[in-house]
């Protein structure tokens, strides 16, 4: 799979084609695929009735016309909200408002996408892990996914499930000192790091982390990169994947590396 290939440089659509369509919606995912994205990254929560849904925030307020916690609604009620209501490029116009875009069910997303497309699935809450495990089996996804989560509790119970897992925030933090001082690191339990170039305003030594874990076969994917020059620099430093809101732009940037 391209997401685990240390020699590959995949361009990964961040929540779909987020620069041009409402994030984590099926139209956004399909736009990213049409633009040439070689993989997609998206986020999952679970509803009150234990249905897996694709949405980033724990609340509805930022991306829909609703308010309140995602987990406070059942799946049917959640889908009554407009998931295109808040999308804007200029802060003045809302071209996706009222077009029937909804928070998609995980099953709908999988069934809408090419059956071979690799995926990075970000678990936003440990509560969604059991439903995700069942969905992975139901759709036969194990061979084409990485499941990651900032909270180590999100993926702890998924270890040994036959699919790749990403490092949590504490896992990455523990690698910072040895990677900076070029000390060997023990073989980690995870197969991938999906990390940002900075955290709370502090730069993350992405190149050092990638170098330290590469001997163990760990791949490094960096988010959210929308600057072509930055993407090229990261690829030259040994990073594998670029997770971008604008995958078409990153594909063009890769030609120059």
The structural class is: alpha/beta
Q: How many helices does DSSP assign?
A: 9
Oligomer: single chain
Query: Looking at the structure, what is the overall shape?
Result: globular
Rg, Å, rounded: 18 Å
The largest β sheet comes out as:
9 strands, mixed
- pLDDT below 50 for ≥5 consecutive residues: which ranges? none
As a percent range, the share of strand residues is 15-25%
Average pLDDT level: 95
Question: Kindly, what is the distance between the CA atoms of the first and last residues, rounded to a whole number of angstroms?
Answer: 22 Å
Estimated helix fraction? 25-40%
What order do the SSEs take from the amino end to the carboxyl end, as H and E?
A: EHEEHHEHEHEHEEEHEHEH
Number of strands: 11
Please tell me about this protein's structure.
The protein has 257 residues and is an alpha/beta fold. 29% of the residues lie in helices and 16% in strands. It has 9 helices and 11 strands. The protein has helices at residues 26-35, 75-78, 106-112, 129-139, 152-156, 169-180, 206-213, 228-236, 247-254, and strands at 11-14, 39-46, 52-54, 119-123, 145-148, 164-165, 192-195, 198-199, 202-203, 219-222, 241-244. Strands 1, 2, 3, 4, 5, 6, 7, 10 and 11 form a 9-stranded mixed sheet that branches. The longest helix is centred in the C-terminal third of the chain and has 12 residues, at 169-180. The radius of gyration is 18 Å and the shape is globular. The mean pLDDT is 95.
Topology diagram in text:
Blueprint: E1 11-14, H1 26-35, E2 39-46, E3 52-54, H2 75-78, H3 106-112, E4 119-123, H4 129-139, E5 145-148, H5 152-156, E6 164-165, H6 169-180, E7 192-195, E8 198-199, E9 202-203, H7 206-213, E10 219-222, H8 228-236, E11 241-244, H9 247-254
Parallel strand pairs: 1-2, 1-11, 2-4, 4-5, 5-6, 7-10, 10-11
Antiparallel strand pairs: 2-3, 8-9
Helix pairs in contact: 6-7, 8-9
